[in-house]
Design goal:
- By secondary structure, this protein is α/β, with parallel strands linked by helices.
- Strands 1-9-8-5 form a four-stranded mixed beta sheet, with helices on both faces.
- Helices cover 38% and strands 13% of the residues.
- Helix 4 links the parallel strand 2 and strand 3.
- The structure holds pyridoxal-5'-phosphate.
C-alpha cells in the first residue's frame, strides 16, 4: 500500500500527460512557454480570481507575495506555529520576524480569537495556513486584519481545491499562495506553485518579482528571483486539471469514509484516537488525513509492522525549531501547537484508495492503538 499513490493517477492520465509533455519537447519553449499562459488562465478561472501567477514552488509563492507587499527587516508577519517550516521560513528569508499565533486545536489552523493580541505597530501582514486541506476561518481573520489595515496572505499549499463558505481556497483574501509539490492535492512532476489575487498592481509586481524584478527586458526596478514555473510542469498540471474535480470528490468521500469507519471501530472507546474535525462551512480536500493518538511512537512502529505506511505532519512546532532559537520563545508559549506536534499522525490518503484498503488501514489503526 502506498501512502500517496501517484502511479495509478499517471496510468489514468497517461495519454494526455504524455501528449502534452511531448508537445513541449517539440516546441522547445521550456521556460515561459504557451502552456504556462494556458495554465494560468485555467487556474484563475477555477479559483475565481482575476489573476493567477504561476511560480517555481509554494515557498517561492509565499516569498514573492511578501516581497510584492514590500515586507522586510523591522517588519512582523503573523503565522501559525503548527505547519510546514516554509510558512515561517519565508518571513525570515525576507528579513522580517515571524510572530506566531497558536492554533485552534480542533482544526489545527490559526485561532482567530488569539490574533488581535499578537498585532503590534510593526505587524505588516497576516499569513494563516489552511492546514491538511481545510481552510482557516477567513471571515474572522479578514475582519480583524481589516480593522488594523493589514493584508492577508493565505498559505494554501495544502488546500488547493478546498472551499470555505462556498468560495475556493486561494480566493479568500488579498493573496492566495499554493504549492504543486507532487504529493499536494494538485501536484506536478516536480516543484511548482501559484499565486492568486484580484489586485492588478500586486499581480504585476508578483510577475516582475518571479522574473528577477524585471519590468522590461534587462531593466530591474526591484530585486526578484528565478521564480518561474517550468513549461513541462504547466503541461502536467493542465493534464491533471482535466480530472481534478473528480479527484477532489474522491478525497472528500474517502475522508468521510475513514471517519465513519474509525468511529465504528472505536465505538466503545471514544477517547483512544481523534479523527479530523471539519467545520460545517468547509470542504476539506484532505491533503492529509491526520488523526491523533496517545503513544505515537508505539503506534507508528505497530502500523509499520502491519504494513500500513504513516507519516507525521509535523513532529515539532515551529517556535521550537533551532532556526528560530533567536526568537527566544518558550516551548509552552503555544500549547495547542506543541500538543498537536506530539500526537498527530497521517494515514494513507489519495484519490485512488479502494474500499478494501481503507478497511485494512482502519483495522490496522484499531490494532495499533490497542
Ligand atoms: C503549509 C505549507 N506551506 C508551504 C509549503 C511550501 O511549498 P513547496 O514545497 O512547494 O515549496 C508547503 C509544502 O510542503 C506547505 O505544506
Amino acid at each position: 500500500m502506498d501512502f500517496i499513490d501517484l502511479k495509478t493517477q499517471y496510468r489514468r492520465i497517461k495519454p494526455s500527460v504524455d501528449a502534452r509533455i511531448a508537445k513541449v519537447l517539440e516546441h522547445g519553449a521550456y521556460v515561459m512557454g504557451p502552456e504556462v499562459v494556458e495554465l494560468e488562465q485555467v487556474l484563475a478561472k477555477y479559483i475565481g480570481t482575476k489573476h493567477c501567477v504561476s511560480v517555481a514552488s509554494g515557498t517561492d509563492a509565499l516569498m514573492i507575495a511578501l516581497m510584492a507587499l514590500d515586507i522586510g527587516p523591522g517588519d512582523e508577519v503573523i503565522t501559525a506555529p503548527f505547519t510546514f517550516f516554509a510558512s515561517a521560513e519565508v518571513i525570515a528569508l525576507v528579513g522580517a520576524t515571524p510572530v506566531f499565533v497558536d492554533i485552534d486545536p480542533r482544526t489545527y489552523n490559526l485561532d482567530p480569537q488569539q490574533l488581535e493580541a499578537a498585532i503590534t505597530t510593526r505587524t505588516r501582514a497576516v499569513m494563516p495556513v489552511s492546514l491538511y486541506g481545510q481552510c482557516a476561518d477567513f471571515d474572522a481573520i479578514n475582519a480583524i486584519a481589516c480593522k488594523h489595515n493589514l493584508p492577508v496572505i493565505e498559505d494554501a499549499a495544502q488546500s488547493f481545491g478546498a472551499a470555505y463558505k462556498g468560495k475556493k481556497s486561494n480566493a479568500l483574501s488579498l493573496i492566495g499562495a499554493t504549492s504543486f509539490f507532487p504529493s499536494k492535492p494538485l501536484g506536478a512532476y516536480g516543484d511548482g506553485g501559484a499565486l492568486f489575487t484580484d489586485d492588478d498592481n500586486l499581480a504585476r509586481l508578483m510577475r516582475e518579482i518571479r522574473l528577477h524584478g524585471q519590468d522590461r527586458r534587462y531593466h530591474h526596478p526591484r530585486l526578484g528571483l528565478t521564480g518561474r514555473l517550468d513549461t513541462i510542469q504547466a503541461a502536467v498540471l493542465l493534464a491533471k486539471m482535466e480530472i481534478f474535480d473528480d479527484e477532489v470528490a474522491a478525497r472528500v468521500r474517502f475522508g468521510a469514509r475513514y471517519s465513519e469507519l474509525l468511529a465504528e471501530a472505536f465505538a466503545g472507546q471514544p477517547n483512544t484516537i481523534r479523527t479530523p474535525y471539519v467545520e460545517p462551512f468547509n470542504t476539506c480536500v484532505y491533503a492529509q488525513y491526520t488523526i491523533e493518538v496517545e503513544n505515537r511512537e508505539i503506534f507508528e512502529t505497530r502500523m509499520k509492522a502491519l504494513g500500513v505506511p504513516t507519516a507525521v505532519h509535523y513532529p515539532q512546532a515551529l517556535h521550537t525549531q533551532p532556526a528560530f532559537d533567536h526568537l527566544e520563545l518558550p516551548e509552552d508559549r503555544y500549547p495547542a501547537a506543541v500538543a498537536a506536534a506530539r500526537r498527530v499522525i497521517s494515514l494513507p490518503m489519495h484519490p485512488y484508495l479502494t474500499e478494501e484498503q481503507q478497511v485494512r488501514v482502519v483495522a490496522a489503526v484499531r490494532e495499533a492503538a490497542a
